[in-house]
Amino acid sequence: MKSEFGKYTRERVSDVPFDIEDPLYNEYKEKVPLFMGQAVYIYSFVKQRMVFANGWEELLGYKNDEITLYKIVNSTSKRHFNFSNELNDKALQYLNTLDKDLDKYSFTIEVEKIHKNGTIVPLFSRVGIYKSHNGQILEVIGISEKLHSRKLGNIMQYAVFGPETSNFEESLDQELFSEFRISNREKEALELAAKGFAFKEIANKLNVSQSAIEKRIIPLYKRFKVNSLPHLISFSYDNYIL
User: Shortest CA distance to 75 belongs to which of 105, 51, 39?
Assistant: First the structure.
């Protein structure tokens, strides 16, 4: 079954690196900023290959002219592979239903990747639409950096951004198969609960209804197989969510 996860994405990406003679590469080399410790790529669905990459040798051991989106997708560690690839699939499928403002959408994920030398590298990665036309995604951009501040557990953490963030996140919540996940808005509410705030107080702080907070926290009991809020908070600390 593992090969089924990420199938939608893998069918649309190639194992072809950028072409240094491509005018797009030289354009992006001048245009795309790169900060210390970051790696970036731009993949073209039109050309079906990378059109730009930088910083990957330091991050994952691949030279910029050998890294491909296929390698990035498939370098995910075993315990994070299914969710990471399913998130890629469902996010792209959702974005392909939109017809405007595509370049304003992105999502983030904290994920383990496997370095070329076989070691595990915890990354914070952000993927967004770099170029679109008439509702069609032409290019995506990905920016990754190594996580130094904390460990990653089995619970996958992600967030989405865009003009209709709530719809985007709700779509992913409904579609994603994995029990071992928590969205940014769920974590945001849980962090306040862990500080001792009641649901009504959390709702006031986040400017939403109390029922909205209950819908963010209560389902976590079943998802993580806990039976109380203190148990959920303890579980969250044990699994590096909090």
Answer: 39
145-160 pLDDT, tens digit per residue, is: 998 877 777 788 888 8
Q: How confident is the model over 208-224, as pLDDT tens digits?
A: 999 999 988 998 898 88
Q: Does domain 2-175 have CATH number 3.30.450.20?
A: yes
Cβ neighbours of residue 169 closer than 8 Å, sequence gap 6 or more: 160, 183, 184, 185
Residue with tokens 């969710």: 83
Rounded CA separation 235/71 (Å): 33
pTM of the model: 0.84
For the chain, the structural domain boundaries read 2-175, 184-238
Tell the residue number behind the tokens 């909090």, with chain if given: 242
| Contact of 143 with 39, CB cutoff 8 Å | yes
Backbone angles phi, psi at 176, to 5 degrees: -70, 130
- CATH match for 184-238 among 3.30.70.1450, 1.10.10.10, 1.10.3720.10, 1.10.3540.10: 1.10.10.10
Distance CA 116, CA 169 (A): 33
**HEC sequence for 157-219:** EEEEECCCHHHHHHHHHHHCCCCCEEEHHHHHHHHHHHCCCCHHHHHHHHCCCHHHHHHHHHH
